[in-house]
Amino acid sequence: MTEPQGSFDVKRWLRQNLPWLFKQRNNGSPESGDEQTPIALLASLIIAFLAIVWAASGIYIVQPAEQGVVLRFGRYVRTVNPGFHWYPRFIEKAIVVNVDQVNTVDLSQLMLTQEENIVSVSFVVQFKIGNLQQYLFNVVNPVNSLQQILDSAVRQEIGQSKLDQILTTGRAQISNKILKTMNQLIERYQLGIVIRDVTMQPATAPEAVKVAFDDVIKAREDRARFENEAQNYANSILPNARGQAMRIMQEANAYKERVVLQANGDVAKFLALLPIYNQAPKTTMQRMYLTTMAGVFKNSDLYVIDGGKGNQNLFYVPLDKAITPTQVKQEGKAQ
Amino acid sequence: MKQLSKNLIIIVIVVVAVLAYFSLFTVNQTQEAIVLRLGKITLNADGKAKIYRPGLHIRLPFVTDIKKFDMRLHTMSVNSSRIVTIEQKDVLVDAFVKWRINNIIAYYKSTGGNLARANTLLNQKVNDGLRAEFGKQTILELVSGQRANVMAVLRQNANEVAMPLGISIIDVRIKRIDLPDEVTQSVYSRMRSNREKEASLIRAQGKEGAEKIKSQADAQAAVIIATAKKNAAVIKAEGDKEAAAIYAKAYQQNPEFYAFFRSLEAYQNVFSDKHKKTLVLKPDSQFFKYFDDNNAVKQ
Predict the structure, then answer these.
(1) How many CA atoms lie within 13 A of A246 on its CB side?
(2) Does the distance separating the beta carbons of B140 and A234 come in below 8 Å?
(3) Residue A127: closest CA among A148, A149, A110, A104
(4) DSSP symbol at B24
């Protein structure tokens, strides 16, 4: 049962479903009554069969995403749209291609900028077939041509752009210009291709100078940090100063109030005494003097030295004994 | 007899089929063809070479030879040519040339219909043009400004040299213009130093900005405090003035008594400390007027 299934099945199928074909052949040969009839019949059957196969082989379906071109003896005759079609084999030939499928070409390389810097850029171009007839017959290897167009357009555009523009804000503009150039060339070469999208990946500095470029970014962060720190300093020092100013003002106000009150207080005692003094100036003065001096001496260690004319003896207090007030007092008593 | 005639018919059919097969030929959509009869190109009625367009055609069997030509747009790549610019710098240039056959006879005569040979011939001529044209330009002009013009000139020149080959140049485009390694290294070091310059400038700007903010804040704070001090001094002075006025008003009533009063107050203040002070006096001071009994008696 490991025989090739295909050939075996065909024979069996023919024998089962078209028994007359085999019967006539088997019956005809031994009898040989009429030699030609079965052969002619067989020949015409084979021709009819081949005709059917031929006709059936020309049937083809163009799927919704596809288009087909029909060539008659190698010459383009028509383009066919999705649906059910037929062509006469050997005379015509149909080529069916998926025209909705989006393909990509890309480019990722180091190249020179306008100021002779070197930058690493990367592009992806999405395209599909726009005109099948042109795509198939106009150009040797249209996709390869598209790749060359991309290479050329990108290098031309990058060569006309400045490094900073490429690295930062200019991406959309560069992509647009490249798309425009590519479309012009596709038109000139009649590639039959339609570009859906040109995408520029973020460009980067080449590896060799990456550290220096990254340091610029770091420097920008440093700048922001310096300014933030300064702002923090300003934010702390100003309220501090305002607080200090408020304290100074409060102290001044307090001082003013205090000196005025004190003046009033000082004056009050004087004014109270003044009428009494006016009545009896001498007695009042004497009383006040004694009261005051009594208070003063009470709070002091007092030594009285009699330096009168008659009495020449020197009174002295040895320093070591003068230290404690009690000793001094004792000496005072002793005298 | 019947058998014979039947065989004959079959033979005739086969012969006719073979003859038909050898007398017919197809030209594809991408091609055009000429027919050589015994090595000579077949001509039209008006004496020009007959060009066979795509489709089915008849020829004389056995004595003719068909030459088909690919009429599509061809590409010829020029890879990594080392070319010297006007400032004697070497650059590596990649370019491509888009061409198609526009004169089959001339093309056939010059190349024998061999695509590789056509590309080789074209390559030599385009390369010469490239060298000549690049030799007139600086790298900068080639990379940016003049690229489009150079390409236009190259196309024109290439077209002139390609004409005898039966070839029409649709486009000449430069892909890559790259600097040789040693120049690339110097470009890198220039880029690095430019960036280093930028980075230090940015940092210096940051410090400048920070200093500005800080010094402004310092100045503001100083002004705030100075203003407060000034105002405080004014207020204090007012207080002193008011107090002085109070004193003056009171003491003017009796200056003599004031002097006495104020002196006593001063003594009291000086000796009212917690720490005792030591006083050394003569006994004849006013306080001790009655201290010595003898004196008191004498008086």
Answers:
(1) 6
(2) no
(3) A104
(4) E
ipTM of the complex: 0.70
In chain A, the N- to C-terminal Cα span, in Å, equals 157
Q: Is the pTM of this model over 0.80?
A: no
Strand partners, B56: B26
Contact B188 A304 (CB under 8 A): no
Window 196-255 of B: residues touching A by CB (8 A cutoff) are 196, 198-200, 202-203, 205-207, 209-214, 216-218, 220-222, 224-225, 227-229, 231-233, 235-236, 238-240, 242-244, 246-247, 249-251, 253-254
Instruction: Give the span between the Cα atoms of B19 and B27, in whole angstroms.
Output: 19
* Under 8 Å between Cβ of B179 and A110: no
The whole-angstrom distance between B6's CA and the closest CA on chain A is 13
- What's the longest Cα–Cα distance across chain A? 202
Contact between A233 and B217 using a beta-carbon 8 Å cutoff: yes
Q: Which residues of A touch B260 (CB under 8 A)?
A: 285, 288
Calpha distance A85→A62 (Å, rounded): 7
Tens digits of residue pLDDT in B218-243 = 999 999 999 999 999 999 999 999 99
DSSP B141: I
**Interface contact flag, A219 B202, Cβ < 8 Å:** yes
